[in-house]
């Protein structure tokens, strides 16, 4: 969802001060010595990871910045403080007073500024910690990826009119219509209806990304603060890996006094389905899903990757023939999802977990919130084909709750979770809960896994893992090549195996069992290809290429 003329946005990502450790109220209110000058995104583990024997900093840090709150635009409304995602717990301060506790949940925060706050200069501060917290997902002290600290995304101010379209209640739902047309249902909720203006109504237009208008709907009156209308796209272009066609839906909320609000949403027309025993189909054509697990991190940046590096990852994956990525094991940056929409890469998106799914109240509350917020943020991305409920752990209570949320908010997409021990799933009675079964490494269990889910389809969600493939070590790289070839053979001639995601896209930092780095990537941590990456490319990419490795 983009900035619109009636919702001005002020990016405040540059010009922050950062200090490591605990700070007092005086520093948060603007007093005390200056901190390190930083711009966002920022990670306080940029320089202390991927090093054998050195544990990265896990603790507290604080950011502050002077902000100029603009005069309020004409008409009632409020300023909201928003951020992109990060890991950890913290609090937000204005002029030395706390206004909210926040959990970054890899999705960010969305806070209304106090109405008493006047226009002009103020001190904004954020305290964070990346210490283990049971109630903060993944809820595990040392998962097999780093819990990076810091404001790893941008921060901005948004003006929201008092009478406005609720972005969390906007839905664009596409279904196949008569004579090749596409029925597009446009649903939204309206906030501020307690002071409902006279004769509110909404108009929708649908355009291509080249601004060609292809459909319109409305005006339709707003009833009970809800709107539901449909229209037809007569000659639709469906989204696919070969032709990732996208559309814009623009909704104008109007009253007799004029336009009150505008929202814009990008979407694609997709017809994905997992056919029982037959695999994954898109618009009636079987598609083999093949790709990688991705962590969003890089030495020198930590998890605070600039948008261009997220997009560069997507371009690299596409170049090497990838059409499928599992976003392991947390919600990832919108720039990467946007790039996958544009390039035609399908995604398995999941909430934050690693052997940490629990039936405890704290974990379940956090998981329910994150599943809901993840789906509301990302459900209009045509690239997403699966919602993931967890990784390598199991809880019948939690998964039933998470599946219910997914079906309420996005009933057309299936849910899954990644299981590495089928016998434990039987013991914990999670058999039958997922729509699609995702197998981590237990490839000998394919047939039984097929029967453990509603749609009788299996994804090899982690496979081909050789964690000691050091780039430049010819022997190790050749073992990784052999691992791919062997496990690819195990997946052959099994149509119910819809696809696979190699572990992993890149080498990554970890402190699980003091490993410090895992060199399982087909690319190293700086995105340089290994021999196995070129094997993957030879199998799946369409463009011919020559790759030369010089060995001893």
Strand residue content: 25-35%
Total count of helical runs of at least 4 residues: 9
> Radius of gyration from the CA trace?
24 Å
What helical percentage do the residues reach? 10-25%
The total of beta strands comes to 30
Major beta sheet summary? 8 strands, parallel, barrel
**Terminal residue distance:** 52 Å
Approximate shape: globular
Mean pLDDT: 93
Strand order across the largest sheet:
21-22-23-24-25-26-27-28
Question: Which structural class best describes the helix and strand composition?
Answer: alpha/beta
Low-confidence parts lasting 5 or more residues at pLDDT below 50?
none
What topology does this entry show?
Elements: E1 9-11, E2 16-20, H1 25-28, E3 36-38, E4 60-69, E5 77-83, E6 89-94, E7 97-103, E8 110-112, E9 120-129, E10 155-161, E11 164-176, E12 182-191, E13 201-208, E14 213-221, E15 226-233, E16 247-255, E17 258-267, E18 272-275, E19 279-282, E20 285-286, E21 289-293, H2 307-319, E22 324-327, H3 334-343, E23 346-350, H4 361-378, E24 384-391, H5 396-409, E25 415-419, H6 422-428, E26 437-440, H7 446-450, E27 458-463, H8 474-491, E28 497-502, E29 508-510, E30 516-518, H9 531-540
Parallel strand pairs: 21-22, 21-28, 22-23, 23-24, 24-25, 25-26, 26-27, 27-28
Antiparallel strand pairs: 1-10, 2-3, 2-4, 4-9, 5-8, 5-10, 6-7, 6-9, 11-12, 12-15, 13-14, 13-16, 16-17, 18-19, 19-20, 29-30
